[in-house]
Structure prediction request, 349 residues.
Amino acid sequence: SIPLTQRAVIFKKHSGKLELKSIEVQSPKANELLINVKFSGVCHSDLHAWKGDWPTKTKLPLVGGHEGAGIVVAMGASVRGWKIGDYAGIKWLNSCCMSCEQCELSNEPNCAYADISGFTRDGSFQQYATADAVQAARIPPGTNLAEVSPVLCAGITVFKALKTANLTAGNWVAISGACGGLGSMAIQYAKAMGYSVVGIDSGAEKEHLFNDLGGDVFLDFSKSENLVPEVVSATGGGGGAHGVLNLSASENAINTSVRFCRANGVIVLVGIPSGATCVSEVFDHVVKSIKIVGSSVGNRADTREALDFYSRGLIRPAIKVAGLSQVPQIFKKMDNGEIVGRCVVNTGE
Ligand code: 8ID
Ligand code: ZN
Prediction:
């Protein structure tokens, strides 16, 4: 049976107290599932939402979280194709309009009417959360819900970013922010897609994780004098990586990364440091004919495909599981760049 109240991490104002409180369980609207969230990943976007440091505004008070994996316990009258007991995922894109030009072209994350979990609506840092049944992720029965949760944002996002980089098997991809939540997934998707990986991050623990996950060359930004020639030489001297993913929340990292891309390569911007601008020297940009493109999460097909990599054992999220009550401590470590892989919270602890 579904309880009337539940545990949630909620905040009333930006950078304010993150309270573990008992709040009401919502009823699903006609188009929605009610999902008993078992585990939720903690994404750096949750930290941005708590700080309120992006131009778009969150709802307040807010329950954050958008990597929630759980079980369908109720659904609205117009839901089709789901049944009680199915495994389902709460994603960043909770719903979109499905009728605007962007949705029609399958660019669902770019819908102007997008409703965002843990941002414009309450998310997965609670035991029961609602999700539009059309956008909710379908997770196969028997899946390890703790392990799959980071696929629901980090996995989908980096998989779509790699598709956007438009590489060929054997190409080099440079990943800046390689051993945080997104990076630790990107290394594995990139290897599974047949690419060679240069990872940029810092510290011995992250270097160890990078090697464990099958990365090829690790460069420590805290020890490097100049990353540009180091990436160029690590990638065989052809002028840099064929593709660059920027997965860090560092403006400096972004502006360095545009300089180690090979001619005709693609730089994909994913991390969103507050107030940052991307600076690319026009001469270089033109003469090397590089492309700098943004990429925001993924659509339903990207979701299905990213989950399929996990189900087939091609990727294995590097998670550390903690209790829901640990969200404040996790945010603090994340702010200091100290998270190795992805932290996942158990909503029951
Ligand atoms: O759809 C999207 N575009 C999307 C989806 C999900 C997340 C965008 N994001 C954004 C987040 O909002 C955040 O801005 O991607 C960024 C990274 O999210 P994350 O992977 O969840 O963050 P993390 O776990 O804190 O990892 C960041 C890594 O970057 C490294 C850190 O050491 C950490 O491992 N890093 C930093 I800070 N500075 C660096 C630098 N100068 C750096 N790595 C390389 N060079
Ligand atoms: Zn996220």
Observations:
- The first helix runs from residue 44 to 51.
- The mean pLDDT is 98.
- The CA atoms of residues 15 and 291 lie 36 Å apart.
